[in-house]
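Below is how a single chain appears once it has passed through the pipeline. First comes the sequence as given, then the structure the pipeline wrote out for it. We keep one example in the README because the format questions we get most often are answered faster by looking than by reading.
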Amino acid sequence: MRVYDLIWKKREGGELTAAEIAFLISGFVNGEIPDYQMSAWCMAVFFRGMTFEECAALTLAMADSGEKIDLTEIPGIKVDKHSTGGVGDKTSLVLLPLVAAAGVPVAKMSGRGLGHTGGTIDKLESIPGFRTELDRDQFLKQVSRIGIALMGQTKTLVPADKKLYALRDLTATVESIPLIAASIVSKKLAAGADAVVLDVKYGDGALMRDYGDALKLARTMVEIGNRTGRRFKAILSNMDQPLGMAIGNSLEVAEAIATLKGEGPSDLTELCMTLGGLMVFLAGICETPEAGKGIIWKILTSGAGLAKFKELIEAQGGNPGVLEDPGMLPTAPVVERIAAPRSGWIERLECRALGLAAMELGAGRTLLDDVIRPEVGLKIHAKVGAYVEKGAILVEIHARSADDAGKVIPRVLNCFRFSEEPVKEPILINESL
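Resulting structure:
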């Protein structure tokens, strides 16, 4: 088998066999296939696509490329959750303690943020003392003891994905539905959960801006996952504006805490209820996702989710005092409050541009080894459909200096579009698969 022939075959629109795909992935991970040949193959896939069978074979080959986590020693049905990422998406911080409080074991490996979307691990590390580096035994023992553990992805889990993504990022082949699907599902399979709920985002602030592309991605991932014998479900959620009001690590942790107290923004709460309902349904706790939403709502209003979050923080070395005093989180020395330049209804928010403004302040990273500034970010005071008076506070800029804040003020103001007529709030959850 020659790599040249496989590149040529895909370039001409041919379908690779599972054996040919396994040969490519193992050879690339082992260093036997050079970057330039794998780059050529990725570009051929980008333009020619993959059949469903090819995509499934790629997913399995990637999942088999390294370590797999065995969760069988933990009793019960283990349910994982994955989001394709978006601006202000702090869902895991709220959702997972709620699900764990319902009696569903949560063994979650999460990633760091890259670009305009934040990572769960970065947010958790805003909590003073919180450790995200756990070894396998610590991770499993903690889930068995308190029902929940969150850690960073290990270097030995799906090494093919890490190596392939770095290549795609440098060769303009990231936005390929088969390659995205294989990347996400391979990590979920290797992480060992029995069932997975996917939050596939679409719109201006999402990886997949087009709804049709997001739907295709969701369907591909669900079908691949279900064919492996696991249970996969997906929802499609709107990312044409930030989720919640906070963008930036400490600010998002504070908003997650408020949400667990029943005081959070309605869109974040709604999304957590829907995802949580699906997760407890897949875990066999109830007979329908709708009944699951009711269970999660009761846990939220009882304070049991907040109590579980406290257990998680304490178990991983964090200071639980942040739950009563979010001021213990890293705080920006400069807060610049920007007033609305006119009265009117907010018609549109440039979501991606807001995420990039927060990244410029230091809330995100361009490269994986960039240093995150947990204290900086944005706090939105009005979103699409809201009416604001001229001079009312529109957004807060949390920055390390007045100069940093001043640099992003024009960009942030330009993200708001006003209308003289009333505007409807956008639908948050569009479809469930």
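DSSP finds 16 helices and 13 strands in the chain.

See the next section for the split statistics.
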